[in-house]
């Protein structure tokens, strides 16, 4: 038995077509075990000559003429003394109730397993084969065939007597026969024949290929794949034949069926047996001693291959060399291959040994993966087929995988697998954590620990945090951010951090982490102090999230120093919690910060901070002059005298001009523009804004002796003041730059005004005509009235005799009158 058990470990050495390295990675397709129990004792004293397989039991024939019925485990359930010589073949019907047996001394017995009544006959020649009709138990005529030097068909007639018919003779001994449905296939020295029992016709003759081989030493193997497909193996040749129905128009004198060979190919070794496996073939090979392709230690060992038949060849799927007992003494004829269709079991029969091959199940697949250390594939296979595996446990495979990764030093991968493998098993989790601690790899497993509904003991998390705190501040901070505060004793960790800060009080990473711990512990004031000290960006989020506005009333300057924009936005958004007056009071000693706050307040609402507008004048003048003039323009609460005083003190001309014009002193404002700014364009623009004729006179008077100013006036005055007034006042002989261009522009502006007026007139006339036509159409339109009653006399509007002339007046308000009921036109007042 040890030899067969060792076979799985030697499979990598048994292939003749692939290298040793490739074979080690190829998973076997079949697994093997020796049929033991009662079989072992039988074969110690006797030798197996044949066997047939039923789904319920096995029937074994021996060289000493005995037949044993065995269960699937090999235990003997019944024993029949048939002969003193070799049993050649055993046949069972589909029900397994009847058995047919033939022996080398010419004995043939067909009987029921539950009664010995049946057919018992002795022939004068060896009977090599026997086959029962598949439905022998149910049929009335109880057909079966035997084969010696001829093939005989036996059946019972209506008198309950056995009738014999010769189906074939004259071509040597019948060496094999297989009956499927209505088709009987048999082999003799020349080839294979198929007989249709229904039509009583022989439908084919498949000739033997290699006639140099002795038929008795290399017998033919037959196997029905289904009711119409026959597989023939003889020597090293394989043929797959399909029985088909012939076209009725072609029948004439031909059988109603014919055989088509759909695949034919040669194999490397001699065939001892065939069996179907889905669309593939299981072949039992006999390997001769002089084979040049096999290593010395594997010669003469039988091989069991799985091949994929093709039209003109085959593809080898797997190949296993079998170490059966006494294989060195066996010949090709000593091996047989039988199969159980129901369970895909294959029995390799040799004189002193019976080996059972079966398809590897998912448990076997996982065994192979684990043996090859392919743990990830094994785990995946177990997870996919967890309902079908019987010998393996998904978690145990996962644990083996984790152990393998740890041994290999891939700690991160091992820790990552813990999350999937350990699941909700708290004991396993804690064991793994302590193991990772022992090997100094707590960091690897930290990020995969349970942290949701499933949690470990707080001590586990604290142990990991302490480990990080000793060696990795950044990793410690990451865990504090990622782990919920409920996982561990927060106060214990806070105390540990404070101990480390005593050694390094300015460590920003530790301070930030300590602030987060205080936040988890709802000690927000302590966290706020640290954030402000560090000028941390999360300080505003902390204030908003936990409503800490009462705690920052005396820290406004700190917040503003950190980030003015965010601080001001926060203060303005929460004015109901921190009043404007409180903010101004806190910022009174920091005018530059006060200006930022009041400026944003003014931008949001021009009226809300009106009592601080006077203070803002000096703040704008000091820190933000570009926004001073817009502030003066938009503010309705700014004291103009105070603003004018400040602007004059600082010599802010533009702001002074604006204030003078707003206070009504436009002449002084214009004078400042002309004298201090010397900007004629700005002066003209100012005059346009005020639209005061006296200002234009002042502007002209001031500019009359300044040629550049005159040019500016000529270019811009045309649409506001008659240019003639300016031209008449120009001194004769004065040189004016670009005078001609300025005069041309005046004329062009005049022409443009004339064209615009004419265009507007045309548009006005067209619109008036269009509206008049629309009114006319509207008034001509009929008016629907709902009541036929005069509003004056209250009688029907329409007379009973419509042939008479009548007059009706309907107003747009839908009131109706007889024409004669209306007052005379002179007495009607139109509203």
Would you mind describing this structure in some detail?
The chain has 831 residues and is of the alpha+beta class. The protein is built from 29 helices and 30 strands. It is elongated and about 160 Å long. It is found in: Cytoplasm, Cytosol; Early endosome membrane; Endosome membrane; Late endosome membrane. Residues 1-13 have a biased composition (Basic and acidic residues).
- The Cα radius of gyration reads 57 Å
Span of the ends, CA to CA: 128 Å
- Count of discrete alpha- or pi-helical segments spanning 4 or more residues: 29
Query: Order of strands across the biggest sheet?
Result: 1-28-27-26
Largest sheet: 4 strands, antiparallel
SS elements, strand count: 30
The general outline is elongated
Mean pLDDT reading? 83
What structural class results from the helix and strand content? alpha+beta
Helix content: 25-40%
Query: Uncertain regions: pLDDT < 50 for 5+ in a row?
Result: 1-23, 827-831
Query: What fraction of residues sit in β-strands?
Result: 15-25%
Domain Vps41 C-terminal RING finger: 788-826
Main location: cytoplasm
Domain Vps41 beta-propeller: 30-359
Subcellular location: Cytoplasm, Cytosol; Early endosome membrane; Endosome membrane; Late endosome membrane
Main traits of this protein?
alpha+beta; four-stranded antiparallel β-sheet; disordered C terminus; metal-binding
